[in-house]
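Structure, all two chains, one model.
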Amino acid sequence: MLGKRYLILDDGSSFAGEAFGDLSNATGELVVNTNLSNYQEALTDPSYHNQIITFVQPSIGNIGINPKSYESIMTSAKGIVVNEAENISFSHLKNMSLDSFLKERHIPGICNIDTRQIQKYVRKYQIKKASIVNSNDEHAFDQLQAAVLSNQQIRSVATSKPYLVPGTGITVVVVDLGLRESIIRQLSKLNCNIIVVPWNINFADIKNLDPGGIVISSGPGSPDEIDPIVIKNILAIQKELPLLGIGLGHELISIANGAKVSRMNFGTHGSSHPVLKIITNEIVYPNQATDYAVNPETIDSSKLIITYVDLINGTIQGIRSRDYPTFSVQFFPERINDLDDTLDIFDEFIESIEAHRRSINE
Amino acid sequence: MQNEKVVLNGMAMQRALNRITYEIIEKNKGVENLVLIGIKTRGVFLANRIANRLKKLEDTDIPVIELNITKYRDDKKASVNSSEQVAENVVNIDNKNVVLVDDVLFTGRTVRAALGAINEIGRPKRISLAVLVDRGHREIPIRADFVGKNLPSSKDEKINVLVSEIDDRDGVEITKE
């Protein structure tokens, strides 16, 4: 028998639903994910650190839990809100359904809520914070109002020590700001010898690893709260080596090149936005999970070229340096909803490393 | 016996052209003063594609000259009709940054001929060379500034660049006789 639970929002409203997953209370930033698939990826994605994810797709849990889909070993989400929670397991090792997975990871869930209604509400009233609680009394709202959300998320999710994912190809250093494993998976497929390093590493130490190119990873939170050493490293790296930025990494590369990043009124979490790839006039539907975007007016066109634009909200989704083999995308280049038309950004990166090597050898 | 091996599929070829486009912007510090010259036949299609990409990114029309190098080839002197036009869509190239575009760089003799032909239409400030494939085996001292793909090959192999404008698809294939 499911117990009654509430999703309460920082404007004083509350939605009744039923408990599943862990039975603890949770408070976090409320985000709305519109993807039709990939709930496991979202649950394990460090970009969702400290956030409560509302899934608009009405049936969540319907393909069980499969560790191959994880974006990290740890889970980062603070809680989840779903319409229908399916109790299905396909695991041959043990009975692992979404419910038992959430219990194991101590993540509270709330189900039997009309999540499409919540999406409309959150968009209309620009809700930031929410809690999943047992009772929607005054005390719970007071606690929600008083809750201060951490701005030191990278320290919680990114690696503090370097590690190697061996490969026979080009050495790529990945600066970890809370990376999604799909970045490593894609580089692995291209045979890269991958060295993941902590975000606060020095440029000299990166160079000692003799990489062909550098990736600044995705991660949670605001780029303005990142330690300035990352910007300093980006400025040094881009002069010497091919550089790829993804998500938070893209925001930081943009900032390093003079642009400003601002918080959107309503974040984009899903893959329903058509994004224009300017150079070839193609439309792609990438996976997006961000509450921040580079402000187009702050782009210095003598330094940066805009390469991708979101056609729904007009946000910049990709940039490239005019002077160096540096480029970055706001979205996550990965296979989503059976489309893989953004995956070849990693091929593009490896090819630009090869081109860079040719140019310095001549 | 012939067997074909695809070394660049359509997507990889698009990507190579994208990268060459960005590298041209990088090396030329923008697209001002830029003229593309495509060597007939496939070099012209590739040059047009690069020009289209530059237009999308920089909103500037970059002229594309179509170069006919027959007259300047060093292997067919006897058969050449010297009244044949050396170039179409000619614009003034004096003091311009010229990017010469061809599909495959092999012995370098085609490029040498193209440099001779360019000499006939003007005196650029600088000429650089963009090729989709560099297959090695140079016979004269020429190198490319922008390379889509380095493709070490043996001399008895044939490299075919396909462009969808006149072939049925995009791609690069190797055939061995």
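The CA atoms of residues 271 and 286 of chain A lie 5 Å apart.
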